[in-house]
């Protein structure tokens, strides 16, 4: 869907045609006259332009579902939040946050009413009339899903886009396919051969799909299979995290193809191919403003964050402990996740230092805290490594062992963990239980105390 932003390029240079106008009208739900009015008025009337001026963070929710004719037509098996932070100079910071479909959560129906279920059910609940917005309204699904995400993530959802499988396939085919560097070779022996809605004559069998590592050119059908596959046992590609990463690769490749010179010529085909398969609360002036905001973003600078059972979530232990394969949050208040996302955009002054960060586990819990937090900090583009287990501490410490070279990094980490920077020491503050000593002058050391692990329970149980 980021590829749709490129529509603004054609409009700005004045090469749009009547076919493009009608395609934009179909996509945005505006009349052709309203589209032309937006083009004349420009992006100045968009709230996105105002957010850029105010340097205010903007959050977009993307919901991917099968659509009519598919099993669980509006179950959003792909959910991504794209967060954008405008900067006073240069392109904005961008983070893609992938949400696992099996996360069992309270679903916000509105008017103080909630139900419980997998997060992929929230959009479907709205579409079926379970929320306070009438089911006939295209925004019914997002009204429930947006409110649910806001409660879980602690951020406001400013805009939303719903995409079904046909839109995904049409977008890729309209630009002549995409080029993706497949990270791992994998085979999925349980990919659905067809749609299975419980009706006579349907194809409920499985087929085998295979992808080789390395550069691949994918048409729409193949790109959809690559993005949907979730049952491989090879190289970790059966996880929701791996599937989210593959979806992000296709989105990035699609964006690159559309903004290329050849891709712009296929814009009318792209817009009309999407047709009824996309719903959103974005108007043409919003698309133009969004393109203006994102056009200079280097794809390599985008943060890719996934919440899964290696960090803030855990598997319930199906079938022994629960009736289905659910994921639950360690922190029942979701405050730990909200805190992390509050700090998702690290100050440029910190990143420019490139300071080495070593994370050590002094919690005494034996739950892999140092590895977990090293990975979470790496998501934010900090250079963090796992320093292993050390003697127990009650309170987290942040040590600046860089001789002041990485002072900004130490200060940021201290703020994140709610402590102050400890005076530089020539040696680690706590003897190692099993890990090698941190080299002298070895950057910044975060020693995770018992306080840092209060939200990660040993046996959190089921139904949290």
Structure description:
It contains 16 helices and 19 strands. The protein has 464 residues and is α/β, with parallel strands linked by helices. The chain folds into 2 domains: 2-167 and 244-308, Aminopeptidase, CATH 3.40.630; 348-453, Alpha-Beta Plaits. The protein has a 6-stranded mixed β-sheet. β17 (397-400), α16 (407-417) and β18 (421-422) form a beta-alpha-beta unit. The model is unreliable at 1-16 and 432-441 (pLDDT under 50).
Structural class based on helices, strands and sheet pairing: alpha/beta
The percent range for strand residues is 15-25%
Query: Strand order across the biggest sheet?
Result: 11-6-1-2-3-12
* Arithmetic mean pLDDT: 83
Just give the CATH class of the largest domain. Alpha Beta
User: What can be said about the biggest beta sheet?
Assistant: 6 strands, mixed
Uncertain regions: pLDDT < 50 for 5+ in a row? 1-16, 432-441
């Amino acid at each position: 869907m980021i590829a749709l932003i490129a529509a603004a390029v054609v409009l700005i240079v004045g090469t749009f045609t009547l076919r493009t106008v009608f395609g934009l009208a179909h996509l945005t739900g505006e009349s052709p006259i309203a589209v032309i009015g937006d083009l004349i008025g420009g992006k100045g009337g968009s709230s996105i332009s105002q957010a850029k001026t105010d340097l205010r963070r903007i959050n977009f929710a993307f919901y991917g579902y099968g659509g009519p004719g598919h099993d669980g037509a509006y179950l959003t098996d792909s959910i991504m939040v794209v967060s954008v932070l405008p900067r006073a100079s240069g392109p904005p910071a961008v983070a893609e946050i992938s949400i696992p479909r099996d996360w069992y959560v309270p679903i916000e129906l509105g008017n103080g009413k909630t139900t419980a279920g997998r997060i992929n059910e929230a959009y479907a609940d709205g579409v079926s009339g379970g929320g306070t917005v009438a089911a006939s309204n295209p925004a019914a699904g997002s009204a429930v899903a947006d409110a649910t995400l806001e409660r879980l993530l602690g951020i406001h959802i400013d805009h939303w886009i719903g995409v079904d499988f046909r839109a995904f396939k049409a977008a890729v085919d309209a630009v002549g396919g995409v080029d993706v560097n497949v990270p791992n070779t994998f085979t999925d022996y349980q990919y659905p051969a067809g749609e299975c809605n419980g009706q006579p004559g349907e194809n409920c069998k499985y087929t085998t799909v295979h992808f080789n590592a390395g550069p691949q050119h994918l048409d729409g059908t193949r790109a959809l299979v690559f993005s949907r596959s979730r049952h491989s046992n090879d190289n970790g590609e059966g996880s929701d995290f791996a599937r989210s990463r593959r979806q992000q690769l296709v989105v990035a490749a699609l964006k690159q193809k559309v903004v290329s010179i050849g891709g712009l010529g296929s814009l009318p085909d792209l817009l009309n191919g999407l047709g009824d398969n996309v719903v959103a609360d974005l108007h043409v002036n919003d698309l133009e403003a969004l393109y203006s905001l994102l056009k200079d973003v280097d794809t390599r600078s985008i943060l890719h964050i996934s919440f899964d059972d290696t960090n803030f979530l855990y598997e319930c232990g199906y079938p022994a402990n629960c009736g289905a394969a659910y994921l639950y949050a360690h922190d029942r208040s979701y405050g730990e996740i909200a805190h992390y996302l509050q700090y998702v955009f690290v100050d440029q002054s910190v990143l420019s230092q490139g300071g080495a960060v070593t994370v050590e586990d002094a919690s005494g819990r034996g739950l892999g805290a140092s590895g977990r937090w090293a990975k979470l900090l790496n998501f934010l583009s900090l250079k963090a490594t796992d320093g292993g287990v050390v003697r127990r501490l009650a309170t987290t410490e942040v040590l600046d062992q860089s001789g002041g070279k990485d002072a900004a990094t130490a200060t940021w980490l201290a703020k994140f963990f709610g402590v102050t920077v400890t005076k530089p020491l020539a040696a680690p503050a706590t003897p190692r239980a099993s890990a090698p000593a941190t080299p002298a002058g070895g950057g910044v050391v975060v020693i995770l105390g018992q306080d840092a692990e209060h939200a990660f329970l040993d046996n959190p149980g089921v139904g949290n």
